[in-house]
């Protein structure tokens, strides 16, 4: 059972005013704070929230992913947020996201909680290089991106197209020989292509070369300096790893919350989107992931995926492989096929071990 203190006690303990404590409670910044009659009571072990009035936690304009990403969780975020483990920011002091993509949930957690340790990972080497450069070399990155933005926006029709395809060729030549020296250039090209290509897709051919055509955006924002600064600041103490999700094994303990967002199992052939990297994520990979997740018994774990019941109510693939965990069916709005047509409400899975 939780033990509580009053707002007055919390104010003394944290060296802030009682009014400020009440505001923090009203803003839901203190997990498990509750109203008793007309006063707030606060769990004794609650940690003083970081001052939400500083830049780091800009509530009106929180940091958001600096790229678009297939399967990005922006839309589902309000639902996911409601299902965070109860003691986020108090007993849960470590966040791991080992299949991070653009990191919609990562940035929400970083915007909201002060964690002792945050670890992210992805198999996509260029994506991870970009996260690292945003964290460590922001000003040079911004310099390149604003040049690209200026050029892209002043060109029209065929000359703009020519610029896009030249940049794509340059990216492909650089990623064939990735080094520390060309890491900033690769990251700038990665963001430029992401903001200007068709639907922000990252798709590569068998040789690992990026092959998405130009999109048809009139005036895309290529260099969002303000958001890049916020994300860079939030990434300051984040450990960024490139590789398979299993690399987070050593970080999983009682203090961790781990969110897995793998490539979704296709609902049907036309919704198939693979090739985030050259490797596909098939049913065997889903089973390997479920086995790994089930082995993480100390940490609080959440995983998302598509719900096969949308197309076949007898397809219990995930119910079977995640047997023993909580399988929540939640409603989401999704582009149902790869061409972005057929948006609609469908059910998705949020699986938790808590
Ligand atoms: C659905 S996306 C994640 C989207 C993310 N939640 C967001 O908000 O943008 C899945 C990610 O898993 C990564 N991935 C695929 N196989 C992986 C593996 N074995 N280990 C780690 N990451 C992997 C892909 O590169 C991709 O970025």
Evaluate the radius of gyration. 22 Å
What is the architecture of the largest domain at the second tier of CATH? 3-Layer(aba) Sandwich
Shape: globular
Q: For the record, what is the CATH homologous superfamily label of the largest domain?
A: Vaccinia Virus protein VP39
Integer tally of domains: 3
Number of helices: 11
Percent in helix: 25-40%
Structure report:
With 354 residues, the chain is α/β, with parallel strands linked by helices. It folds into three domains: 4-43, Alpha-Beta Complex (Molybdopterin biosynthesis moea protein, domain 2); 59-123 and 243-352, Vaccinia Virus protein VP39 (Rossmann fold, 3-Layer(aba) Sandwich); 132-200, no CATH class. The protein is 34% helix and 16% strand. The chain contains eleven helices and ten strands. It has helices at 7-14, 18-26, 77-82, 104-112, 125-136, 138-154, 157-175, 183-196, 225-234, 283-295, 317-321, and strands spanning 4-6, 34-36, 39-43, 94-97, 117-122, 238-242, 256-260, 300-306, 326-335, 343-352. The strands form two sheets. A seven-stranded mixed beta sheet has the order 6-5-4-7-8-10-9, covered by helices on one side. Helix 6 packs across helix 8. The relative contact order is 0.12. S-adenosylmethionine (SAM) binds at residues 69, 71-73, 98-99, 101-104, 121-124, 244-245, 261-263, 276-277, 281. Residues 69, 71-73, 98-99, 101-104, 121-124, 244-245, 261-263, 276-277, 281 line the site of S-adenosylmethionine.
């Amino acid at each position: 059972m939780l033990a509580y203190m009053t707002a007055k006690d919390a104010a003394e303990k944290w060296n802030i005013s009682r009014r400020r404590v009440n505001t923090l409670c009203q803003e839901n910044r203190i997990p498990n704070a509750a109203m008793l009659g007309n006063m707030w009571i606060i769990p004794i072990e609650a940690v003083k929230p970081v001052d939400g009035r500083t830049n780091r936690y800009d509530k009106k304009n929180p940091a958001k992913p600096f790229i678009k990403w297939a399967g990005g969780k922006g839309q589902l975020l309000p639902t996911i947020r409601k299902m965070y483990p109860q003691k986020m920011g108090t007993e849960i002091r470590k966040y791991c996201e080992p299949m991070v993509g653009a990191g919609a949930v990562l940035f929400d957690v970083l915007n909201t909680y002060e964690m002792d340790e945050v670890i992210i990972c992805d198999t996509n080497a260029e994506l991870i290089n970009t996260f690292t450069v945003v964290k460590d070399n922001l000003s040079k990155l911004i310099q390149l991106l604003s040049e690209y933005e200026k050029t892209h926006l002043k060109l029209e029709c065929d000359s703009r197209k020519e610029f896009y395809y030249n940049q794509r060729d340059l990216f492909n030549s650089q990623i064939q020989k990735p080094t520390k020296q060309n890491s900033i250039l690769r990251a700038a090209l990665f963001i430029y292509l992401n903001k200007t290509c068709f639907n922000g897709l990252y798709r590569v051919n068998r040789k690992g070369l990026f092959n998405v055509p130009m999109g048809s955006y009139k005036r895309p924002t290529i260099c969002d300096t303000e958001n890049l600064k916020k994300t860079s600041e939030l990434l300051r103490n984040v450990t960024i790893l490139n590789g398979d999700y299993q690399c987070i094994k050593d970080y999983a303990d009682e203090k961790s919350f781990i969110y897995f967002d793998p490539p979704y199992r296709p609902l049907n052939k036309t919704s198939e989107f693979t090739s985030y990297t050259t490797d596909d994520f098939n049913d065997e990979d889903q089973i390997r992931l479920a086995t790994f997740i089930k082995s993480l018994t100390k940490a609080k774990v959440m995983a998302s995926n598509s719900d096969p019941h949308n197309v076949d109510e007898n397809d219990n693939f995930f119910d079977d492989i995640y047997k023993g965990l909580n399988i929540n069916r939640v409603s989401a709005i999704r582009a149902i096929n790869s061409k972005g047509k057929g948006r609609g409400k469908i059910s998705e899975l949020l699986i938790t071990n808590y």
